[in-house]
């Protein structure tokens, strides 16, 4: 095909625009990374752009020697590990019965509505907080796991995937004497690895990123997960008296590079997992769009 | 018991743990909503709180800032929804025009990375780069001769900053959704259009856009449910008392009233208002999505 002048012009502009757009998405992160490896005076003088100036790893050495930071990583690892297992197990156990037809499982519609109603209406923050207090799990790791243990959106995703599996599998398995537990573990689970991988990755990211529950349900800072710990130090700046001068006096510059290094360390696992996330993400979208 | 009932028993057992957790953590809070209608004193048995009717709602209504907060919430949520819908459509159409696949994939990879990072990380980054004295954004603006802008500390700028940074975080996500929809358009349509002499612009207008329309309608209707979700995670991590005037939203007000000032009843009343409105909007959005795009949740 011959390309007209106007089309070539459009193409050039388009490539330029999209490249700029991509840069806007990634450069802030690169800038913070550069800051974290720069020395205090260069950072304060505004010399750092996209490459470290006065290269140093002091900020990282400082952060990694802070017990509070390391404690919070331990809490986060516990939370991600335990939380992902619980979420995944419950997703499977709820999605399987709900994927049956009403003719095969009489109360299916009733059960499904009980779960779906929770995404339509919720009691709000205070009643939720009171309920967790009432169940006596405040300040324990379970407070970060049990209240969000039943992820309804993931359940819907998986049950729609289950419904796409051929019905003959169920029938032949039950003729061979396999009950529902056998069908779930021996047939459905092995056949749903792409869907399960998607859900697992998203659950891990969700647990890693969650911070609000840690902030209000944990009484002592030693029990804060990493995201909550970072929330308390990264974004707590008093801007009330913010004039340019005050800001400069208020803000310790070494504090700035230390924050930059924590931002990068907090984002690092997500960035490392990103290639996988990206691959499964598109699959997840396709899964979500296959509806019976 | 019939044979069929017995065969269904394991299904009930499978649902039991999930059901219990949902009843405790999603349904028990409904009883807590009674807080909005009683005079609550800690330490007193929950059922013995005296009934005060709509007293707390009247108090909220008479609060000087309640209408402003409602306005802020709606304003920010509305623009997030509208701009957050339009930008991905445009970017998806532009990406669709790229001939080089590696470029297409590269752009996609970069634009939806922010989606996976939390508002804690992004908040930390934004506070640094938007700082009026040290931030690189104001440094660059300074080179153009523009005086430092207090993006996060100025009431005129705050809602704008919130809307733009939210679109910045999320537009990649929706772009990928739209691109996935584009792949399902029958290539034969383009071939036919080419034979009929349609140029690329005509093809976009008459094939690509109509092909995207169902998913555009779907996402637009589903977003109706978010008219009161201005984004707690984002605003809580970026705002400060100096921008309460234009940046305070229902969720942050509930947090401060309830958990910082311990006015449980008032906070529950505000929360209940939001839940009821959201319930109607989400239900409406699902109903419309079902009617317009034949979408079903399960």
TrEMBL record, chain A:
Transferase keyword on record: no
This protein's record includes keyword tRNA processing? no
Residues covered by the ABC transmembrane type-1 domain: 73-274
The primary site where this protein sits is membrane
Q: Which Pfam families match?
A: BPD_transp_1
The way this protein sits in the membrane is described as: Multi-pass membrane protein
Q: Give me the segments passing through the membrane.
A: 12-34, 80-98, 110-129, 141-162, 183-208, 260-277
Looking at the UniProt record for this protein, which Gene Ontology cellular component terms does it annotate, in alphabetical order? plasma membrane
Keyword entries, A-Z: Cell membrane, Membrane, Transmembrane, Transmembrane helix, Transport
| PROSITE patterns referenced in this protein's UniProt entry, alphabetically | ABC_TM1
Superkingdom? Bacteria
The GO annotation for biological process reads:
transmembrane transport
Q: Which InterPro entries match?
A: MetI-like, MetI-like_sf
Which cell locations does it reside in?
Cell membrane
Which family does the similarity line name? Answer: Belongs to the binding-protein-dependent transport system permease family.
Q: What is this protein called?
A: ABC transporter permease subunit
Q: Which organism is it from?
A: Paenibacillus sacheonensis
From TrEMBL, chain B:
**A GO BP term, please?**
transmembrane transport
Q: Name one GO cellular component term.
A: plasma membrane
Identify the keywords attached in UniProt to this record, alphabetized: Cell membrane, Membrane, Transmembrane, Transmembrane helix, Transport
Boundaries of each ABC transmembrane type-1 domain copy? 70-285
InterPro entries, per database record: MetI-like, MetI-like_sf, UgpAE/MalFG_permease
User: What domain of life does the native source organism fall in?
Assistant: Bacteria
TM spans, by residue? 12-38, 74-95, 107-127, 176-195, 207-228, 264-289
- Membrane association type: Multi-pass membrane protein
Q: Where in the cell is it found?
A: Cell membrane
- What family, per the record? Belongs to the binding-protein-dependent transport system permease family.
Q: What is this protein called?
A: ABC transporter permease subunit
